[in-house]
Design goal:
The structure holds two protein chains of two kinds. By secondary structure, chain A is mainly alpha-helical. Chain A contains seven helices and no strands. In chain A, helix 1 packs across helix 3 and helix 6 crosses helix 7. Chain A is globular and about 45 Å long. By secondary structure, chain B is an alpha+beta fold. Chain B has ten helices and eight strands. In chain B, helix 1 crosses helix 3, helix 6 packs antiparallel against helix 7 and helix 7 crosses helix 8. Classes of the chains: A mainly alpha, B alpha+beta.
């Protein structure tokens, strides 16, 4: 029989506030545009509160929150609402951090990220940016760990092709052996 | 060394007992070493690129959402103002006043354009409340100096309401330009990091402001104004104008406003 969580203890808002900066960072890398990213964060927080009764049973808050964000993002993509990113002049862009003092490198990175399939981008960001263990990524995205590894591998090779290729042009990908999905 | 081992090595997730093995492998396989180095470079670039987001002050509507407050979607004007701290944009966008009926001594519902001091109060809140590092000029540790300084600049003795029992600790305050001279802003912080500001102006309000007494002649007419994620209660008492602004809901703000009013008017 599943354990019943006492519902009388009120969830602690500090729990979510603590993860807010990291949720925003991940969302920004996923969606690039500040408004869209913060919308995703807000949806995530609201969803988390609407399920506040479950918090006590959540063993890993970060994994839980990021999986909510993942589901909302994928749903939005499926509905086709984010297919066109409308960037007008009034849209504040991500502050450009100097990456090796080279603006082009930033553009390449942005372009390369956007050019990746969302499945690979998510795995790469959770590992490289969020610093999650592979098992946590598997739990967050609800996929087997083998799939995490194959997506990570393919995502990185693709990124290498995009970033290291001449002028950021993709070059022919090496066929990876022995990796599925 | 499998492909997976190489990734685990690059991400620092390889079993510590196998690290030496991986390093020996990479020393003999320069192509793999080059790939691993590239992967690590991408990770570093991703962090360089997106870590600044961690240090951005979170918009009020997200702080409210994290605290489980009712959803308030920001208007476009609000977003731009928040993003650029563009005070004038927000001032121009300040719109209607929403009537509010409190329990007990019912503040009067007034539909009017907020007076200029209330508009400035909301702008000041929007500009300084999200500021993580320099939200105040003088912090609460020097409360006495803060009060003395602001009282001197405003030319009248000021009192700082103590809101600790309501869950708001004084963080400090700052001097701001009003319509003609200096005004004061006191900043409070709740346990979850949400900020509340009390804006105090003693410039005689313009004719547009009329105080409508509620039940008794001396009751203040609290009025409510809202823009994006900022809610504000304001009232006028003679030459003094007060505004309390925060990203919290109306009921909570009414609770605080009532207490502030009580403290300011108690002998």
């Amino acid at each position: 029989m599943a354990p019943v969580h006492p519902s009388n203890s009120r969830p602690d808002p500090a729990e979510l506030l603590q993860w807010l900066p990291r949720l925003r960072r991940y969302a920004r890398a996923l969606r690039r545009n500040r408004e869209d990213a913060d919308d995703l964060v807000q949806d995530t927080l609201e969803r988390a509160w609407s399920r506040a009764g479950l918090w006590q049973g959540v063993s890993d808050m970060r994994t839980w929150l990021f999986s909510i964000m993942h589901n909302l993002h994928v749903d939005a993509l499926r509905r086709g609402r984010l297919d066109t990113v409308d960037l007008d002049d009034s849209t504040p862009e991500i502050p450009v951090a100097a990456v090796q003092g080279d603006r082009l490198a930033v553009r390449d990175l942005d372009g390369a990220l956007q050019a990746m399939p969302v499945e690979q981008r998510e795995v790469l960001l959770l590992v490289a940016l969020e610093g999650m263990a592979y098992a946590e990524v598997a739990q967050t995205l609800d996929i087997p760990i083998g799939t995490v590894m194959s997506r990570l591998s393919r995502g990185r090779e693709r990124l290498r092709g995009l970033m290291d290729g001449e002028a950021g042009r993709p070059r022919n990908m090496k066929v990876m052996g022995g990796l599925n999905t | 060394m499998t492909e997976n081992d190489l990734h685990a090595y690059a991400d620092g997730q390889l079993d510590p007992g196998r690290r030496a093995e991986a390093e020996a492998w990479l020393a003999e396989h320069p192509e793999d070493a080059e790939r691993v180095a590239a992967w690590q470079r991408f990770s570093q670039q991703l962090n360089d690129r997106f870590d600044p987001v961690l240090r951005e002050p979170a918009p009020l509507h997200l702080l409210a959402a994290a605290r489980g407050r009712p959803p308030v979607r920001p208007q476009v004007s609000w977003r731009l103002a928040a993003s650029f701290a563009g005070a004038t944009l927000l001032a121009g966008a300040l719109g209607g006043v929403i009537g509010y009926q409190a329990h007990g001594n019912a503040p009067v519902v007034v539909a009017a354009q907020p007076p200029s001091f209330a508009q400035r109060a909301m702008v000041a809140h929007a500009v300084y409340a999200p500021d993580q590092r320099r939200a105040v000029e003088v912090d609460a540790e020097h409360e006495e100096q803060l009060v003395r300084w602001l009282s001197k600049r405003l030319g009248s003795p000021l009192r700082v309401p103590q809101l600790q029992p309501l869950g708001y600790a004084l963080e400090g305050g700052r001097l701001l330009p009003g319509n003609q001279g200096p005004v004061a802003q006191f900043m409070y912080r709740d346990g979850a990091g949400g900020r509340l500001t009390l804006y105090v102006s003693n410039e005689a309000p313009g004719k547009a402001v009329t105080v409508f007494p509620a039940s008794a002649p001396f009751d203040p007419a609290f009025r409510f104004a809202q823009e994006g994620g900022v809610n504000s209660f304001y009232w006028v008492d003679g030459a003094w104008g007060y505004a309390i602004s925060a990203g919290v809901d109306r009921a909570e703000l009414a609770r605080v406003s009532t207490e502030v009013y009580r403290q300011l008017t108690s002998p």
